Amino acid sequence: MAVQHETELYAPLKAFFEERGYSVKSEVRHCDLVGISPYSEQPLIVEMKKTFNLHLLLQGLERQKLSSDVYLAVERNRAKRGAHNQRWNEITILCRRLGLGLITVTRYKTKPPFVEILCSPGDKVIVPSPKVIKARASKLLYEFNERSGDYNVGGSNGTKLVTAYREKALRVALALQAGGEMAPREVRDRSGIGNAAAFLQRNYYGWFRRVARGRYVLTPEGEQGIALYQGVVDGWHQAAPAADDRYPHE
């Protein structure tokens, strides 16, 4: 059964790697899927496409600047005959030459998807893999660790992502919603965001307004932002019910 959108590959891949002990999150620093394992210092990165193409290959090479454990994942559609993306032997050899892993996902009408690893990163590498840029890798791990959960869908394009920055801005907005007009120090104490003042001053999303020197309120756009990301807030409360008292917004 052919996939309509590459996002349909995310759930089977997430389940596949979670079964192998990875903690998985999507859309971290532009990577479709990122996994962290207690048994590896390198983050797992998976880039997904419906079919194997040059754009996917170039994405994989770029991600090798973040980690040496990079996979490309595509659909394996048994109904297609003679298509270039069905030449799995040649594609696998190409990925091995570049130090990339290759995964296929086969979907069925009546049974769960089948995920198969055709090669792993580092299998018979003929050319050296690009050197990991430590600063970029550090930003990737920071973004992963600063997110409280997995609120995006891997493969998303043109949608507003729940990033670590947006989560912190949301906590600042919740503090203002609950406390009304407040000083940055009060927002910091109520939200638990140490640099809350920077969020208020930069006002990247237009959620906050300064009404007097050192005094801020939540804007109508901020109220809309809280409503838009209510699912994220609910996830916080489910993960830590005791934190509900901090945000008495209901």
UniProtKB/TrEMBL annotation:
InterPro entries for the chain: DUF2161
Superkingdom of this protein's organism: Bacteria
Protein name according to UniProt: Restriction endonuclease
Source organism: Paenibacillus vini
